[in-house]
Amino acid sequence: MPETTSARRTGASTGLTLGRVLGAPVILSWSWFIAAVLMTVLFSPWVMSVRPDLGTGAWVIGFLYAVLLFASVFLHELAHGVAGRLSGQRVAAIELNVWGGFTRFEPTIDTDQKSSSWAGFVISIVGPLVNLVLAAVGWGLLHVVDHASVAWLLLLAVAFANVALGVINLLPGIPLDGGWALQALVARFTGSQYHGTIVAAWVGRVIAVCFLAYAVLPPLFAGERPSVITLAWMGGIALMLWFSAGDAATHAKRARRMETYDLAQVIQPAISATWDADVDRTLAYADTVGPARTSTLVVVLDEHGLPFGILDRHAASAVPAGGERHHVSAFARPLGPWIGVPRDITAPHLLESLTHRPKARFCLVMDGSTLVGVIDLPEFFDELLAA
């Protein structure tokens, strides 16, 4: 399934890096090995029932099935990545895990809602379509291999698995691919990505309930007890779908707030001062800049004219007036990682810029070549994401 990176994501998921495709790492999550064991355990008994002569070799075939299923999921995710690249997006990572996998894209700021929605629809839909094509190929190859041979067993299982992957992923609810496709369609016709996400997330919750109902209701209507194994599988899938849909809705609400967020409310007025500027004169000038009753920050520049610290006004104000002349650099606290942005930048574009400097602590707001403000980024994120 396609996914966009968050500006606050600290790094890629842990696991084995198998290589790189489309300029991005392919990560095999540690959780995939859990899925491989489960697939082997579930598939091997069926192999034994069809080919009892294989003995313990049935477990090897069961593991081969898990590997082939992994390959199918990889091709599914690769299709997302290729479609994304063709639409101008950059792939950040392809991960394979216990739930299948996902393709993560670098964030972009889209100005054309219609074209980006259409691209999102295509990116979402190609993955399941690849699975259906693989299922058709596998079904066709069944007719050219010997019945009940090892190849026949694997092709039959892979064909049915890809049908399931394709059909289930086409269901129109987030976090399934069909859900992101629905989100793109609703956004295309309403002009609102937020409304598209909310609609697809609620459909995803309905689908989650349907998965759970499928495990419970048919056996009850037949006068039987629900299968514990089926209930565990369907319950796990339902929980994953329900909470993933809820997360998508929450992120959509935050993104909507970000689109209309006024950065002016978090920009602290600031001036710059060379490292050897006089403390008294600098403080006197700073007090004349910015709104009344607001302490203007002083960003201290090094010998090369680059920001390296913020003046500690409290410590600097404690220096007796009229005494020895002090430089502002003597009272500068380290600035830490920073990023410079124009004064008219919007919140979405600021977050886009931060993807290239994820460790930035401060944002220096510039009016041309003049420093006019500072944003404390951790405080900005805490305030922005509080809703």
UniProtKB/TrEMBL annotation:
Top-level taxon of origin: Bacteria
Ranges annotated as spanning the membrane: 21-44, 56-75, 118-139, 151-174, 194-216, 228-249
SUPFAM superfamilies reported for this sequence: CBS-domain pair
Pfam families: Peptidase_M50
Keyword Zinc: yes
Entry's localization field: Membrane
Topology of the protein relative to the lipid bilayer: Multi-pass membrane protein
Chief location category: membrane
Keywords: Hydrolase, Membrane, Metal-binding, Metalloprotease, Protease, Transmembrane, Transmembrane helix, Zinc
Cofactor requirements of the protein: Zn(2+)
CDD domains cross-referenced by the UniProt entry: S2P-M50_SpoIVFB_CBS
Domain Peptidase M50, first and last residues per copy: 66-142, 152-203
The keyword Transferase is assigned to this record: no
Family membership noted in the UniProt record: Belongs to the peptidase M50B family.
The name this protein goes by in its record: Peptidase M50 domain-containing protein
